[in-house]
Specification:
Layout lengths: L1 H19 L51 H15 L3 H12 L20 H7 L14 H14 L6 H8 L3 H16 L2 H51 L3 H50 L5 H4 L4 E2 L2 E2 L10 E3 L8 E4 L5 E3 L4 E11 L3 E8 L4 E10 L8 E2 L4 E5 L9 E6 L10 H4 L7 E3 L18 E4 L6 E4 L4
Helix pairs in contact: 1-2, 2-3, 2-5, 3-7, 5-6, 6-7, 8-9
Length: 481
């Protein structure tokens, strides 16, 4: 019992001292040893917990009212000591911690029900959970318990001799193993300053993308308000000319003039929103330049949302299979909806020429563009939250050029990129180039993308490209419309 209390106190002191330490938020050092004898306070990796062998919080599947947060220096100590205790490389634990919960920022429960710092399924936690800090409770929402439990689980899965196989047991997907081991190599080879900088660059990039999405949303709303007021103003001024009596005309003129003051205010609001968007774009360009060099490192590009290349093709959405998914089918006609978080980068899939681009919201397609790739195929992108101002009719795009950000403008059930051929005669996801990115740039999901929110029309929704002879605008109508 005395040895148990001493070990628990030592672990608490390690976390406490690291939490108070100054210096970089994220610091990594290579442990002098990744193997050690198993302390008596920790359960063996040889057998799982017997039923009822551990105590868990009363509602351990639900997040606590207050989330535990540790700086990454303290987390590094946990990774290193847990890895040493169970013979697992600390940097693999770090990579899993990053991918699963972003170092405790997104602890779920996930859509599948995974919970806590290392995203254990509740049933798996009951079998392999660890009370690492000796407080009598094995808590997946506690960083120490979760990291030690992950190390134990990996060891039980053969991680001391075959770490790839052990990581596969953590998540049965080849892409997951690649992401974890690639990122683990980056963490293990990097210096303290490099790794701290990597985290800061990613945070800045994510924040800059979110600011562009928010700024463009505000601008679109301001422009819509201004346009509505202008249309009403035209009707009011029309009534001036329609008035037969001078008195009626004077009243109509006064009403129209007073109303135009609102247009001036709306125009000023739109100008302010436009300026804010330009500032957000400048910040994003700066963040992208900062991320460009580290994105070339294998394992880092996915975190930064860098484009994934395969011969002459690029997958249209960045973020990797952890965040990006696509179904084998679409809800009602040949197309693909590529689900990804709002603000994820969108790329040109190949060398192409822009046939038509629209930066305001089409009622069905939202913000988007139509391009002709170098093989002669015509593709339409829909539902972007933002389209780069440089993307205009007639512009040539190189494969991998970032053209905008994922959104849900127009009629969309959630944030995704809608991609389809024109005419929509076949599924994009059946093309060899698309399938070559499976498990690398995206993951397959079993269910087709849902229809639009309840209450939306349920008729056929083929986006047919209809050139208007007057101004060359491309409109989108239902099939047969």
């Amino acid at each position: 019992m005395r040895s148990l209390l001493v070990a628990a106190t030592a672990l608490a002191l390690l976390v406490g001292s690291a939490r108070a330490a100054d210096g970089p938020v994220l610091g990594f050092t290579v442990s002098s040893s990744t193997r050690s004898s198993l302390p008596s306070m920790l359960p063996s990796a040889g057998t799982p917990n017997a039923p009822g062998a551990i105590s868990v919080p009363v509602s351990f599947t639900s997040p606590p009212a207050l989330h535990q947060q540790l700086d990454l220096t303290a987390l590094h100590l946990l990774w290193e000591h847990a890895g040493s205790a169970y013979g697992i490389p600390w940097n693999v634990l770090a990579a899993i911690n990053k991918i699963e919960s972003n170092f405790g920022q997104n602890m779920g429960p996930s859509s599948a029900g995974a919970i806590g710092w290392m995203q254990f399924m509740p049933s798996t936690w009951l079998r392999w959970g660890v009370d690492a800090d000796g407080d009598g409770v094995a808590d997946p929402w506690n960083a120490g318990d979760a990291v030690y439990a992950a190390a134990r689980y990996l060891a039980a899965s053969g991680g001391q001799t075959d770490i790839s196989r052990a990581v596969f047991s953590y998540n049965h997907a080849d892409w997951y193993v690649r992401e974890v081991l690639d990122l683990a190599q980056v963490y293990g080879n990097g210096t303290i300053q490099q790794t701290a900088g990597l985290e800061q660059v990613q945070a800045s990039l994510d924040q800059a993308r979110a600011q562009v999405v928010a700024a463009n949303r505000k601008l679109l709303a301001a422009q819509e308000t201004e346009d509505s007021l202008r249309a009403l103003s035209q009707r009011l001024h029309g009534k001036v000319n329609e008035a037969a009596l001078l008195s009626d005309r004077l009243v109509a003129e006064r009403r129209a003039t007073l109303f135009d003051v609102r247009i001036d205010a709306a125009r000023a609001a739109a100008d302010d929103a436009r300026t804010s968007l330009e500032r957000a774009q400048a910040s994003l360009r700066s963040a992208q330049r900062s991320a460009q060099a580290p994105s070339f490192a294998q394992g880092v590009g996915t975190l930064m949302g860098a484009p994934a290349y395969d011969n002459n093709w690029v997958f249209p959405v960045g973020g990797g299979p952890e965040l990006v998914s696509a179904a084998h089918t679409h809800h009602d006609y040949p197309a693909v909806d590529i689900a990804a978080p709002e603000g994820s980068p969108v790329y040109a899939i190949s060398n192409a020429v822009v046939l038509n681009a629209w930066h305001t919201i089409d009622p069905r397609c939202g913000i988007g563009m139509t391009i002709r790739t170098q093989d002669g195929q015509v593709w339409t992108y829909c539902h972007l939250s933002f389209l780069e101002p440089s993307v205009t009719d007639g512009v040539s795009l190189a494969a991998g050029t970032q053209i905008g950000l994922v959104g849900m403008t127009g009629h969309a059930s959630g944030p995704h990129l809608h991609l389809q051929l024109q005419p929509p005669t076949s599924y994009p996801q059946y093309q060899p180039w698309f399938q070559s990115f499976a498990g690398k740039a995206f993951r397959w999901q079993d269910a087709p993308t849902p229809l639009e929110p309840p209450g939306m029309p349920q008729a056929a929704r083929v986006f047919s490209v209809v050139p208007e002879s007057r101004d060359g605008v491309v409109a989108f109508t239902r099939a047969g419309g």
